[in-house]
Amino acid sequence: MEVYLNLGAEHKFGLTAGLLIYTDGSRSFATLHEVRKERGGAPYLAEGQPLTTAFLRTLAEGLGSRMQPEILPGAVLVRTPDLLVWWSPAKQRPMFFSPQGDPDRVLNGKRFPHPALVFKVAGRELYVRALSANERPTATTRLKTAPYWNVGQDGRVCQGSMRAPEESSVASMDGWERAFFRSEFTHVLGAVRLTKHPDGFLGLWKGFAGRRRRFPVELLTDARQSLAEFVSEG
């Protein structure tokens, strides 16, 4: 196995410790062993010691998972080194469509009413769900399918040429929302029912182009998922 590590500068590493993981098929535990070496001999592992939270914290920081302290605004629902979830109230937003999706250009660039939304950034992936109530959701809140092209059944966004932020910090939340709504909606992503509107997706948005009124949440479809399930999925 070949492993390449780019640290951006020259560093000299030495083997100092080893981890041994034991399992019986359902449970696991690990021990930490100091690496010792006798004069003229090969390195060997010393007796094992229980792992400490301090060691695991140091190891995680060394692997790049240290998170800078942030002041969390009220919109944030979940924040970990690898995950950011927040909700956005119902509001007016512009939408853009590809020429193939909107050949008559009756929708492109218009402003529309939108439901409250929940966004999730996991790694470099963006996910979005809708809310039936314009209020901060709880863990048990049932989610709705986001009524947009480019969004799959699991809520994952096909980013295409979307200019997404380079990071997933709290400060980047507005950037992720802008990137999503300023990109072109181009196509249905998979077998997902986006709306209960009798004329489908285009019929839904044609009825609201340029109109200042609330989004009819009764036309949202059930995502069959709670907020807690959405957060833990993937």
Task: Note down, in words, how this protein is organized.
With 234 residues, the protein is of the alpha+beta class. It folds into 2 domains: 17-62, no CATH class; 76-232, no CATH class. Helix content is 14%, strand content 29%. It is built from 4 helices and 13 strands. It has helices spanning 53-62, 173-182, 200-206, 227-232; strands at residues 17-23, 28-36, 44-50, 76-80, 83-88, 91-94, 96-97, 111-114, 117-122, 125-130, 142-145, 184-185, 222-226. Strands 4-5-9-10-11-13 form a 6-stranded antiparallel beta sheet. The chain is elongated, with a radius of gyration of 24 Å.
- Structural class, by secondary structure, is alpha+beta
Task: Provide the residue-averaged pLDDT.
Answer: 86
Distance between the termini: 28 Å
Enumerate the strands of the largest sheet in spatial order, edge to edge or round the barrel. Answer: 4-5-9-10-11-13
**What characteristic shape results from the CA principal axes?**
elongated
Summarize the structure.
Helices cover 14% and strands 29% of the residues.
Provide the descriptors you would attach to this structure in a database record.
4 helices, six-stranded antiparallel sheet, alpha+beta, 13 strands, 234 residues, elongated, single chain
List the helices and strands and how they pair.
Blueprint: E1 17-23, E2 28-36, E3 44-50, H1 53-62, E4 76-80, E5 83-88, E6 91-94, E7 96-97, E8 111-114, E9 117-122, E10 125-130, E11 142-145, H2 173-182, E12 184-185, H3 200-206, E13 222-226, H4 227-232
Parallel strand pairs: 7-12
Antiparallel strand pairs: 1-2, 2-3, 4-5, 5-9, 6-8, 9-10, 10-11, 11-13
